Amino acid sequence: MTWEGAPGYSISDLLKEENNLVPIITFNQEIDNILGGGIFPHKITEIFGDKGVGKTTICCQLALDVQIPISLGGLEAECIYIDTENTFVRKRVHSMAEKLVEHCSNIEPSLTITIDSLLNGIHYIQCGTSEDLLQILDDLHRYILSNSKLKLVVIDSLAFLFYTGSEQFHQRGKVMYEISQRLSQLVSQHRLAVVLTNNMTTRFSDFGNQYRIPFLGETWTHIPNVRLHLELEGDSRVARLIKGPVRPIDSAVYRVIEAGIRK
Amino acid sequence: MTMSNTSIITGEAALHNLVSSSSKYISTGIRKLDLLLDGGLWECEIVEFYGKSNCCKTQLCHKIIESISCHSETSPSSLYIDLHNDFSASRLLQFCKHQNPNLDNVRVIKKVTIDGILRTLEEVQKELCHGQSPFFEKLRLIVIDALPFALYTVMDWKNPGRQIQEQLIRSLRKISSIYKLTFIIINHGVTFRIDQSGSVIGKSFGSGGGSSLSKYTKNIKPALGIYWSHIPNTRILLSRGDEDGFDLKDNKFRATVVKSGHDQINRYTDFLITANDIF
Q: Measured between CB atoms, which of B53, B103, B119 is closest to A12?
């Protein structure tokens, strides 16, 4: 590795690349706005929140939205969906896909996008333990080389792998950094986006009060580039950007309906 | 180190050498930060910024790089070693105040593994030694963001990865002292827990940045352990949020000096971060 005078990337190269990035939309314009357009490639995005708040729905929505044709402003790419909790329900995704096809056909009737093509564009893998995940992430390099349309990796949920992990508590940090390294390698070598979900758990403060925090703990908070917190507030659901590369902390209201995530 | 003579000198002579040395510092571009650092970023030194997630460590480095390298063609150059896809060229541009900033003095190297970093540092040293490249001739600052990403895959609770750490530290020290650069190392911070009597649960964490629990260290300990803790000359804790009485929406953060070769510790200053500036 020798450089011809100047090492690595120049700022103008990076700017060109950043300006050409196409975000993966969530179909909720407010959430897209707080994210800076949508889920950005080349970043690891964490979505965390309590059960039932819509994490899996957003993941399925993104797995479909990454396939939106370029002519409609999408990436026309495909998605790897790593499922650890068996929350991926084909029937639900089928109806979300149906609505997406309808939406796209209304804009451009001549499109070849179909429900089947959308479902085929989601490469589904089941994963049981953190060792499995490390192996899957290693194997993904070869898989992506023969499937260059893959631009999104979803892990739903990452937290579940640590519920009954074989590693001791003190090993957990190292495993997290190993997962982080594999994800970073995928992101930088294959120019794709990673979205993963995290659940909540209860902790007791020294004074005895309970509070909810993300399950993966504080060590993990450094690892995603973008962190989105979903929660229920009374009757509505709110998404809050907790960490982001260039955006200030901001929030948006969203709904989960049959078609997926909407305003 | 082969550059200095090895004869024994008196304390008075050593003090004289220190006072008359031409060791220089370079301004960070943020006046309040310069005050905390006793002038700015000193040659031959390793400065560490650590803190919890989202406390502006990376953004602060973007701003410092802009101040040092983007004002003119003759500005010193900076190298950013990005271990986690955190560098943002658009964010760097947002900090630029000039109409036509000079962006050629900043380069970004993306690495993910510790081997990658060690090889990169070897190459950097070669280029600095040859003196052929204008970029390396003017090099004054190297940022590494963030060290735990590389080291924590080879070290853990049982195995502190001492050999790899030593290799890395030798490299950092050699480059900074021979070529008179400053390294800024970004580190992670985590909260430690205290038991009822007020003592810390878990291992102690060495020199500066929490060798003793104080209201200044705010029960946030730097990662990478005791061995690493002795390496930086200056350690700065960055914090924001409730523990400082800030509302996160205020976009404020605090920098506290927890270890310094220059000046008193436990001094702190609050900063404001906006879309275009940190001050």
A: B103
